[in-house]
Amino acid sequence: MGNDSPNNLNSLSLLGGKNNNYPTDYCPGILEAFQNRHTDIDYMVKFNCPEFTSLCPITNQPDFAAIYINYIPEALMVESKSLKLYLFSFRNHGDFHENCVNTILKDLRDLMKPKFIEVQGKFTPRGGISIDPYTCWGMPGTKYEEMAEFRLKNHDLFFENVDNR
Description:
GTP Cyclohydrolase I, domain 2; 6 strands
């Protein structure tokens, strides 16, 4: 996906480029990775995308969300500009909220092979209801698999306050 040589930062094709070609539809191949230089410690990398858009696959109307991505890297990390362009590629893509969030997790998992990753979408209400899908994954057979199970079990234990009534 994207970058065949994650050891060489110069091989990142999008970072620093001035001519951005924004994808017109879902494009996982645009994702690029680079080498994690701190494999000796666990740490969390967090991305917040407050302007995510996709299209309803039935009505073709736009859906808006904040997408939150957290991961613990192993050997590879996602390059942020390629992630931005990848997330932009959903703009004209028709899919349900739940599928968008799971697709993002799976594409990033396939690219980086992280120890742990979680993705949440906080979609704005349409028709009087909001949808907030959450998914996570931990490396099988490790404490990260247990972490993912714990995070899923304990995700959103408390209802959000709704103060618009």
